DNA sequence: AAGTGGTCTAGACCACGCG
DNA sequence: GCGTGGTCTAGACCACTTA
């Protein structure tokens, strides 16, 4: 019988984690309910609840009312990616950040874009393309469409000094968004901008941002060839 | 003055979210402390705490003792990726899963591998390469090294029917791991296995898994050309 | 020194979902 | 029906950090 010494939810979490990792509690097996665990560990049930909830959030436990709590058999790893403003991403590596506007034009988008953004096919959108630099070398190329129907004030902005990314974050609220990462082959144009070999494989991020039912912006970012997206378990 | 009707932490969270999104509370501005908010919303402080903690976890608020709580200016988006067992990934799309062992051999790893896994350069490791299929078409190619110093029982396993991924999850505990995503160009060999054009850009996952200080396994997974890693904000 | 968030407690009620 | 997790409450003490 274990007793006392488990007065914080973190220590309870660690103890449960230990029992899972040592296979004292095996994958798929049920563990004691919250009340019993609290009694055994000598703390309040809410402390146990907080600990178990934290482990369930990270996918190591499966909890269901009445059915109880079980050790996950095939833990779906929850890898959390921090998607920061690119300037911060560069600066946090200790590199010097640079920014170059390539193009800024109001024009009719391809139907794939107006479709995804659910804007009228006849509506012009603001297209902004820009290069992000790390230590004066290309770091990422961004191609962005802005829904001027929703963000009319963007028309007054040149985006010559501040990236559209940061300007939007500061001035336009959003409620949700989708992100997709993929690999794409550098076109001649992209390779020229990124100063890499044509046909290079580039990690690519597509991001679509919404404010309730209206799209705010759609952006595609090509990262330089060696770029990695890192996280841990 | 708002009163009552905020009896759940989710409703408090939504109300705070609303005030942030409507810019009633602007980026960078301080918001009331927990006690005051609880009073205004007519609930207990712990309910407010739970709500604000949840928003801080997702990066929308910044909290510091004594300094109080502020609306984040450049919210670092926390995108959570679910890294599931590949079989589940395929099946959850409604596709038929298939598995083919390509190679299974005990051999000396390249120094890059023994270095990353921190095994002796002279130590042989178990190399397993296998193909995951969706509807009989190549979905992902996996190249894996297993630290047989730690997982000796892997030597008894053929991996002919069950993927090393699932076998390891079931039989070998791990404490933590690193994941990196990148884009890579398909070599002739990889392209042949994946039945795609050589020089295709493939989304690639590198994963290194540890049990305390000892490495368990290192795996590289090449996904088929159109593969996307999706999540939302 | 003092204000703020972080947490614990004991007790309570409730919603869900097995059996 | 009823056991389990999910949550709320009121009060308390503490840790951290800034003023």
Explain what the structure shows.
The structure is a homodimer of 233-residue chains. Chain A is α+β, with helices and mostly antiparallel strands. Chain A has 7 helices and 11 strands. A 6-stranded antiparallel beta sheet of chain A has the order 5-6-7-10-9-8. In chain A, strands 1-3-2 form a 3-stranded antiparallel beta sheet. The first copy, chain A, is elongated and about 65 Å long. The two termini of chain A are 31 Å apart. Chains A and B meet through strand 4, helix 6, strand 8, strand 9 and strand 11 of A and strand 4, helix 6, strand 8, strand 9 and strand 11 of B. Chain A binds a DNA duplex (19 and 19 nucleotides) through helix 3.
Q: Could you give the topology of this structure?
A:
2 copies of one chain form a homodimer.
Chain A: H1 9-21, E1 30-31, H2 34-41, H3 45-57, E2 61-64, E3 68-71, E4 77-83, H4 86-91, E5 97-107, H5 111-117, E6 125-134, E7 137-146, H6 164-171, E8 176-185, H7 188-194, E9 201-211, E10 214-223, E11 229-232
Antiparallel strand pairs in A: 1-3, 2-3, 5-6, 6-7, 7-10, 8-9, 9-10
The first copy, chain A, binds a DNA duplex (19 and 19 nucleotides) through residues 7-9, 33-35, 43-47, 49-50, 52-53, 63-69.
């Amino acid at each position: 019988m274990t007793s006392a010494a488990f007065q914080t939810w973190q220590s309870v979490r660690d103890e449960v984690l230990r029992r899972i990792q040592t296979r004292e509690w095996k994958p798929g097996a049920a563990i004691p309910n919250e009340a019993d665990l609290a009694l055994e560990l000598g703390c309040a049930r809410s402390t146990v609840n907080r600990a178990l909830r934290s482990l369930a959030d990270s996918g190591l436990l499966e909890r269901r009312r009445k059915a109880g709590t079980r050790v996950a058999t095939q833990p779906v790893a929850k890898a959390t990616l921090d998607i920061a403003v690119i300037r911060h991403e560069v600066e946090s590596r200790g590199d010097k950040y640079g920014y170059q506007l390539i193009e800024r034009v109001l024009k009719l988008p391809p139907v794939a874009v107006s479709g995804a953004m659910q804007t009228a096919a006849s509506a012009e959108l603001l297209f902004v393309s820009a290069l992000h630099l790390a230590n004066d070398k290309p770091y990422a190329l961004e191609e962005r469409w802005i829904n001027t129907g929703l963000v009319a004030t963007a028309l007054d902005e040149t985006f010559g000094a501040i990236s559209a990314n940061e300007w939007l974050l500061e001035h336009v609220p959003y409620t949700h968004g989708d992100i997709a990462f993929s690999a794409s082959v550098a076109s001649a144009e992209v390779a020229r901008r990124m100063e890499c070999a044509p046909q290079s494989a580039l990690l690519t991020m597509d991001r679509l941002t919404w404010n309730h039912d209206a799209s705010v912006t759609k952006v595609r970012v090509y990262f330089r060839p060696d770029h990695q997206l890192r996280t841990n378990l």
